[in-house]
Amino acid sequence: MPRPRPPPPPPVTRRRRTAQEARDAILDAAERQLVASGPDGIRLQDVARDVGVSHPTVLHHFGSREALVEAVASRALDSLHDDIVAALRRAPEGEHQVAALLDGVCEALESRGQGRALMWLALAAPAGHRDDLRLRAQAEVLHATREARSAGRAMAPLEDSQFLVVLAASALLTQSVLGAQLLRGAGVTGAKAPARFRAWLARLMLAHVEREG
Hints:
The chain has helices spanning 19-37, 44-51, 55-62, 65-89, 95-111, 114-124, 135-150, 158-178, 180-185, 193-212. It is mainly α. The chain has two domains: 16-63, Arc Repressor Mutant, subunit A; 77-212. Helix 1 (19-37) crosses helix 4 (65-89), helix 5 (95-111) packs across helix 8 and helix 7 (135-150) packs across helix 8 (158-178).
């Protein structure tokens, strides 16, 4: 006697994405292409295929390829800026706290390739097109923290805090792209060389702040 056939499995119901979920998925896919191939590597058809939507859906959310690239850049900058400002407002004082702040920024730049993405965008953009790197706001938060600790002592000007932010951003952005290659070129080796460099940079910046007020 033949065995009865098992009942068919229930149909798989696929949850419909919200508009924000679809937008985030498109941005994630475009960011991966940006990190891998640069701005020229972002193709709307490929993004749509990776996300599982149609080409017109991508256009519905972003309007054009250029607007999508700009949205990817803005999201990366916003996320990084929020993390940095939150860390600065916690007012790191000692060497280990400042080094931990630098480590966190470098991790944020490296973890999703955001440092590489920002470098690609800076190289591809027309001169002066990408001036808003959120660094001025970070410098102002840093300066306000220094003022709160000055207890009435003479303070270095805002430009000093701006230069500190530029120094840290330049070092960490370059390190996030070149990794240990830059250090090896200077003869600094070892698995922990990048962390040692950030600890050294933390000491340098902290000594400067303590000297200048």
